[in-house]
Write a structure and sequence with these properties.
Elements lengths: L4 H8 L6 E7 L3 H15 L2 E7 L1 H9 L6 E3 L3 H5 L6 E12 L15 E4 L6 H12 L3 H5 L2 E4 L2 H10 L4 E5 H4 L7 E16 L4 H10 L2 H9 L9
Parallel strand pairs: 1-2, 1-3, 5-6, 5-7
Antiparallel strand pairs: 3-8, 4-7, 4-8
Helix pairs in contact: 2-10
Length: 230
């Protein structure tokens, strides 16, 4: 009877759910929120989500913030945390504008263009600046640029009318509330790495779930694609 008692106690009183803190790029907010809810339903762990510019998330981690898993919008930002990360998602840039444009050079038609703050190292802005520089269009755009705290803030600036156009991720463009035209910048290719920051069983469990078929279906439904190698 004694050997059975511990098992009966476990059945009567389930193991306490564990808590995990996940910091992630702002552009993953909607998809990752749904992924986290699916994970919670499956494991009964609790996921606390923290979204923002990847650069700011990385600074917090380096400063000692208690983060279990980090999803960045670029590889270089992930490396600042001392981790290489594993490629999780892929994305591309797009321009949303109040009226149609057929090429990037036509951005100079607009007085205000919202871009995530490239000066602060926000990946979406860094990607946008790098791309525009390769096609010799950055000088014209820079004089019209409104730097924003992250890519979702750039989209919000466009939606509110504070900007006439914005350079955002393709996944964010799908969320625009203001009537708009879209110019996809297919030459851009963006990889989101994920990494365990504080090693624990629950952190590894959530990390593994990110790469599961169920999570992948959710991410792709929100417009993300998969990197060539995961």
């Amino acid at each position: 009877m004694r050997s059975v008692l511990p098992l009966l106690l476990l059945l009567a009183f389930p193991l306490r759910a564990e808590e995990i803190v996940v910091s992630a790029a702002a552009s993953t907010r909607d998809a990752l929120t749904e992924v986290a809810r699916a994970y919670e339903a499956k494991t009964h762990d609790r996921v606390l989500l923290n979204f923002g510019g990847s650069n700011e998330m990385a600074r917090q981690i380096v400063a000692g913030a208690k983060v279990d898993v980090f999803i960045a919008a670029d590889v270089e930002t992930m490396k600042r945390t001392g981790r290489d990360g594993r490629a999780l998602l892929s994305n591309r840039l797009a321009i949303v504008s109040a009226s149609p444009i057929s090429n990037v050079s036509q951005l100079k038609r607009f007085r205000r263009v919202a871009i995530a703050n490239w000066r602060a190292g926000v990946p979406a802005g860094v990607y946008a600046r790098s791309y525009l520089m390769t096609i010799n269009a950055w000088r014209d755009v820079e004089t019209r640029a409104i730097p924003t705290v992250d890519v979702r803030a750039a989209l919000a600036a466009f939606d509110s009318g504070a900007a006439d156009a914005a350079i955002v991720y393709r996944t964010d463009e799908r969320l625009a509330k203001r009537r708009h035209a879209t110019l996809a910048l297919d030459a851009t290719s963006i990889v989101y790495p994920a990494a365990v920051i504080r090693k624990s069983a629950v952190a590894q469990r959530f990390f593994d779930f990110l790469f599961s078929d169920g999570a992948t279906r959710i991410f792709t439904r929100y417009g993300f694609t998969l990197p060539t190698k995961r």
